[in-house]
Specification:
By secondary structure, this protein is mostly beta strands. The protein has 6 helices and 34 strands. It has a 6-stranded antiparallel sheet, with no helix packed on it. A 4-stranded antiparallel sheet has the order 1-3-4-7, with no helix packed on it.
């Protein structure tokens, strides 16, 4: 008769004593006419001060529970045994004073089963320490006695079975002194990798998504790296795109950027320790199309330039993102005197406003209530510079940004010659003109001007202008009470 050892992780319901459990399962020679209905059991008993309970008689009530930790008791017995000089208690389950059921009649194929131990270290009936452990494996002999389903007898001493929730699975025999661990619901030889879960994906837009994850257990050593992995195919790994988000256990989050719009992605979290890398459950996400929607319901197409998303139509909102109205100033004197946000259509013409958008003074463009849609903002001077550099520099970017065609050619809105216009960038600049500081209107069909959020001084701020006679987009500082068009960039 040969035995092998299996460590169990127990869940105590009382903290009066510390209780360490080690089961010894009997593998019986096939020459036996009938398999023995017994399992060896050993436990080290310590008191609440972590002192060994040595050379003392203790009482132990053993129960086998079916289905769950709180399921039905199918077998129970009582033992009175003595610990040795090392606090080790040894007994044989199946040889005690039977209280309920018959160990030999348990159908081990109808698992899962749990073992509950109740101990009185004083040898009485006050079972002050209770622990419940999943019975992860059973001896082949005990299993085969009742299962009757053609279970193989095994090839080597120490082979075991565990219940995976739907069927019994074989575990090969381990090596001498090798420890078994309970890793993510499965018993295995050797240490465990970490446990990690991907809880949610949020903040989903056209080019990014934020993943919320948690390392719930470090495994058998500290977590040295954790993060997110993603791919266009299922089951992404570190061989695909990944984002390192530090180390340790607990909750973490990360923003995945530079995704393609209107694309399906598979995302998992990962965690690594000395013993390996594990991956979480998988979530899928579909990125949004390229557009923005303001508080008034206006929808604007957008495009990505140098990893920054810009609207490609002029803003038409008449309210800030928080719902507050922006003043519509008709009188020229009121426009000149304004030191707060204001808007106007060119020549107060609604139809032109539908085509060219709204003209805003800089006070509206820079207001902290945000003139752009929620999640968007007016670009800074540096962001305008980056866009222009990306399009080839100020001397040629204007041509790439202007819509094509001319009024005289009946194929556009610009006055001829609309020099060098290709709109190859898709930025689609229209000649919306501007409102002067005195309240008049100028340059419709010949120029387009845009505010940035960066001011130069108390009276002026930086703006950009494109004209029908040049491919250049120029920068200058303009009085803050001039009315210009506005484009928006997405927050990152």
């Amino acid at each position: 008769m040969t035995s092998s050892f299996l460590c169990f992780e127990s869940t105590p319901t009382s903290k009066i004593f510390s209780f360490f459990i080690l089961f010894t399962f009997l593998i019986v020679d096939i020459s036996f006419a009938q398999s023995p209905d017994a399992m060896s059991y050993q436990a080290v008993i310590r008191d609440s001060d972590e002192r060994l309970v040595m050379n003392s008689e203790v009482a132990v009530r053993i129960s086998i529970i079916q289905g769950s930790e709180t399921g039905a008791v199918v077998f129970s017995e009582l033992h009175l045994e003595s610990t040795n000089e090392n606090g080790l208690l040894s007994l044989v389950i199946g040889s005690g004073m039977e209280l309920e059921g018959d160990l030999g009649e348990i159908d081990w194929s109808s698992g899962p089963y749990f073992i509950r131990t109740e101990t009185d270290p004083t040898g009485g009936s006050d079972f002050s320490l209770i622990a419940v452990s999943s019975l992860l494996s059973v001896p082949y002999a005990l299993y085969a006695t009742k299962s009757g389903d053609g279970l193989p007898s095994g090839d080597k001493s120490g082979e075991m079975l565990y219940w995976n929730g739907g069927e019994w699975v074989e575990i090969p025999a381990g090596n001498h002194s090798e420890l078994m661990h309970f890793c993510d619901g499965v018993p295995q030889w050797g240490p465990c990798a970490p446990l990690v879960v991907l809880n949610d994906l949020e903040d989903i837009i056209s080019t990014r998504v934020t993943g919320l994850a948690e390392v719930t257990h470090p495994g058998s050593s500290p977590v040295t790296e954790r993060g997110l992995v993603w791919s266009l195919e299922p089951n992404p790994t570190l061989e695909d795109e990944f984002l390192n988000l530090g180390s340790g256990i607990g909750e973490f989050e990360g923003r995945i950027i530079r995704l393609e719009p209107e694309t399906d992605y598979y995302v998992r979290a990962y965690a690594t320790n000395e013993w390996g890398t594990t991956y979480s459950n998988e979530l899928t996400v579909s990125t949004m199309g390229l557009f923005a929607q303001d508080i008034d319901g206006n929808i604007y197409p957008s495009a990505i330039y140098e990893n920054l998303e810009w609207t490609t139509e002029n803003l038409r909102s008449k309210r800030y993102a928080n719902g507050d109205p922006i003043d519509n100033l008709i009188n020229g004197g009121d426009w000149f005197d304004a030191t707060e946000g204001a808007w106007a259509y060119y020549d107060h013409d609604t139809e032109r406003g539908e085509v060219y958008g709204v003209l805003y003074n800089w006070y509206a463009a820079s207001d902290s209530r945000n003139i752009c849609p929620a999640g968007w903002r007016v670009p800074t001077n540096n962001e305008w510079e980056a866009l222009i550099t990306h399009l080839g520099g100020a001397s040629e970017a204007g041509g790439k940004m202007k819509t094509t065609g001319t009024i005289i050619g009946a194929d556009g809105l610009w006055q001829a010659p609309n020099e060098g216009a290709t709109n190859e960038s898709g930025f689609s600049v229209l000649p919306a003109g501007d409102r002067t500081s005195g309240g008049g209107f100028d340059r419709l069909t010949t120029a387009a001007s845009f505010w940035g959020s960066t001011e130069l001084n108390q009276n002026t701020a930086w703006g950009r202008r494109l004209t029908h006679t040049s491919t250049t987009i120029s920068r200058a500082n303009y009085a803050k009470n001039i009315g210009f068009s506005v484009r928006c960039v997405r927050n990152y």
